[in-house]
Amino acid sequence: MKLIQTVEAEGAVLCHDITQIVRGVTKGAIFRKGHVVAKEDIPVLLSIGKDRLYVWEREEGMLHENDAAEILCAMCKGRHMEQSQAKEGKIELRAACDGLLKVDDKGLKAINGFGQMMIATRHGNFPVKKGDKLAGTRIIPLIIEAERMEAAKKAAEQATGGLPILDLKPFVHKKVGIITTGNEVYYGRIQDTFTPVIEEKMKEFDTELMDHAIWNDDDTKITASILDMIEKGADVVVCTGGMSVDPDDKTPLAIRNTGAQIVSYGAPVLPGAMFLLAYYQAKERDNPRTVAIMGLPGCVMYAKRTIFDLALPRVMADDKITSEELAALGQGGLCLDCPVCTFPNCGFGKGV
């Protein structure tokens, strides 16, 4: 830090806030710590009695907070993101499109455990809209060692395998097939109130309902129907009902008999414990596809939010879900069924 004449301060960096007081009008910082003095700022500074200023004196091996903020931002900025200008060591990232936010937890912890710098993000694996704030980064001191920033960069790269800490996966257009199961619906004993729920949730994404079938509790018919929809081009097949352990419930068997890889039958989420997720490898020569097959328990029909709301955005972004990730939903997997639902602005689905 050094003291200079204000008239010679163009391009200098302020070491502290500059406060302006006008009685009855204003009292506050007119320039903040870290502000780079511009030519037009000098008359303003002189008008409030600042003939001399304390400014940052460049030191070998030290970085100004805004320069360091750019380095920190580069560690976490992934695809389809826009950044704000660095100000007071801070940069914000916003979504450049609708999509699914991914956060590398190991990389995030590596940076935030380093000291004198931080990254705060919204929860990963949740959908975001274009323009939504994704993360904020901050360098804590006015100046920071270049060596520390380089060490942090290496730690982040080691944790993430060289990838950015954040990624935004755009939602993909999907052709959807829905199979409604159950003797009670097939034989007209009750009205199908499940399918409209699925259709409404699909409207939140770029989807095309290409087929819908209703079958009784005959696993051979359900299996054939799933495979038929895949052959017609379905990217996602949703089977509603028939997911419990009752003797008449054959949907899990039907999905298994397609030859699909079962990720999990059951999830530590309430509502939605009897959820089934599988992936089928369609072997078309010109268009090999991975088709997501979901078996939905009856709670999806009547509960406001369920496991389906946690899995669907990931399916729509081609973000393959693992059994380990489903298992991790146990902490935060209990919906509190609040009188006024604020999902996703609540703890549901936000685990460790």
From TrEMBL:
Obligatory cofactor(s): Mg(2+)
Enzyme class: transferase
GO biological process, alphabetically ordered: Mo-molybdopterin cofactor biosynthetic process
UniProt EC number: 2.10.1.1
Gene Ontology CC: one annotated term: cytosol
Keywords associated with the record: Magnesium, Metal-binding, Molybdenum, Molybdenum cofactor biosynthesis, Transferase
GO MF annotation, one: metal ion binding
Domain MoaB/Mog: residue ranges: 177-317
Superkingdom: Bacteria
Keyword Metal-binding applies: yes
Pathway assignment: Cofactor biosynthesis; molybdopterin biosynthesis
Catalytic activity: adenylyl-molybdopterin + molybdate = Mo-molybdopterin + AMP + H(+)
A UniProt-annotated Pfam family: MoCF_biosynth
Family: Belongs to the MoeA family.
UniProt cross-references to PANTHER family, sorted A to Z: MOLYBDOPTERIN BIOSYNTHESIS PROTEIN, MOLYBDOPTERIN MOLYBDENUMTRANSFERASE
Function: Catalyzes the insertion of molybdate into adenylated molybdopterin with the concomitant release of AMP.
Protein name, per record: Molybdopterin molybdenumtransferase
Species: Clostridium porci
